[in-house]
Design goal:
With 360 residues, the protein is an alpha/beta fold. The protein has 10 helices and 12 strands. Helix 1 packs parallel to helix 2, helix 2 packs across helix 3 and helix 3 packs across helix 4. The termini are far apart. 44% of the residues are buried. It binds NADP nicotinamide-adenine-dinucleotide phosphate (NAP).
């Protein structure tokens, strides 16, 4: 076993722009478990192992360290053009006047001239401090307000026009929100980052993205086994302990985590596993280049679906919201929106003062 996976064998996905991106990426969110230095060290090893897509975010607090790693690793062996570096705009930077400055800060930290992709991390401008508990609420939090989101989106579009960013995308959105964004966007999202693992397959949203040529990127692809306590509830199911996943893993003689990644890659989403262990991140990359799951195994994994969302997003809730389910438009409507209008969009309830009415 070498420490390097042949990059020619790593699957690639073509975005609607015609650009290609690697079919697997390296996550960089260390949660509470790994320091920025540990994450940066792993990114360095991952780049040398053959990872070319690095999934960053301003709120992970480690872009300045990852930037050092990128600078040290981009040389004659790894060209900048081979890399796909993605970052995300954090919730407290949604004001259109803040977007360009946030992007430039990320570029400065990552020591890059441009980003391959920039996402709006969450569709809510609801700030909460890093590492806070699930019961923390910001009294200024509001539900999704489409007009405001589009103001942010237009600032994202300007980054593309200015050449700071090659693609823009969404994250943690739903079908109702995506419909509106697609209706009103000048530049449509190239990717949508969403939680995806065998126990949470999000079939409808996944298909919606595919149908609209938006590449799905799957976060927490192994089921985030080391996520912080604040992101755990008693009903959560561990993908790598599911009997179907374990049985398939035994047949292939590999760790169940690798079955989750093979499934993700063969289904068509781009998994972005995180690991600090060299043997794990190399195995994660290699597994999508060899020994594929059979059609029957892929079919069997469909039965593992448990609608088990792990990252529920409670900290984004606004006063008047009932539960975290309100963040995810599960009945097909956005809280505060009244229904479809004639042109296929949604009408929005407005108060007399023009503000939006959250569902009570
Ligand atoms: N857009 C968003 O809102 C959002 C939300 C969450 C995450 N993300 C992104 O998605 C990335 C991945 O998500 P995640 O870190 O939550 O979950 P994950 O990748 O599903 O799980 C990571 C954990 O799995 C373990 N692991 C990795 N490979 C393994 C293997 N081969 N065998 C056994 N264990 C293995 C790792 O432990 P070891 O270190 O011990 O290997 C690590 O703690 C993040 O880093 C971030 O970039 C985005």
């Amino acid at each position: 076993m070498t420490d390097f996976v042949d990059t020619e064998r790593i699957p690639h996905r073509t975005l609607y722009t015609g650009s290609e991106m690697p079919g697997i990426g390296f996550g960089t969110f260390g949660s509470d478990a790994s320091s920025g230095e540990e994450v940066a060290l792993s990114v360095s090893g991952a780049m040398r192992a053959g990872y070319r897509y690095i999934d960053c975010a301003a709120c992970y607090g480690n872009e300045h360290l990852i930037g050092e790693v990128i600078r040290n690793n981009v040389n004659a062996d790894i060209l900048r053009e081979e890399l796909f570096v993605l970052s995300k705009l954090w919730n407290d930077k949604h004001k259109p006047s803040d977007v360009a400055a946030a992007c430039r800060k990320t570029l400065m930290d990552l020591k890059l001239e441009y980003l391959d992709c920039y996402l709006v991390h969450w569709p809510f401008p609801n700030y909460h401090p890093p590492g806070c508990g699930a019961d923390i609420r910001n009294p200024d939090s509001r539900p999704y307000i489409h007009e405001e989101f589009m103001d942010t989106w237009r600032a994202m579009e300007r980054l593309v026009n200015e050449g700071l960013v090659r693609h823009i995308g969404t994250s943690n959105v739903t079908i109702p929100k995506l419909r509106l964004i697609l209706r009103d966007a000048g530049i449509k999202p190239a990717v949508n980052q969403m939680e995806l693992h065998p126990c949470f397959q999000q079939g409808e949203l996944y298909q919606f993205c595919v149908d609209h040529e938006i590449q799905p990127i799957g976060y927490s692809p192994i089921g985030s086994p080391k996520r912080p306590e604040r992101d755990r509830t008693p009903d959560d199911i561990a993908d790598i302990e599911h009997p179907v996943i374990i049985e398939i893993a035994k047949r292939h003689d590999i760790h169940p985590a690798l079955i989750c990644l093979k499934w993700a890659s063969q289904r068509g989403q781009i998994p972005i596993p995180f690991s600090t262990k060299k043997e794990n991140y190399i195995a994660n990359l290699r597994c999508v280049t060899e020994d594929p799951l059979t059609i029957d195994e892929m079919e069997n994994i469909k039965s593992v679906e448990r609608n088990c969302r792990l990252i529920k997003g409670q900290v984004f809730l606004w006063s008047g919201a009932k539960s975290w389910l309100d963040l995810w438009d599960i009945d097909g409507t956005i809280p505060g929106w009244t229904g479809y209008t004639r042109d296929g969009g949604y009408a929005h309830e407005q108060n007399n003062d023009g503000s939006n009415t959250p569902r009570q």
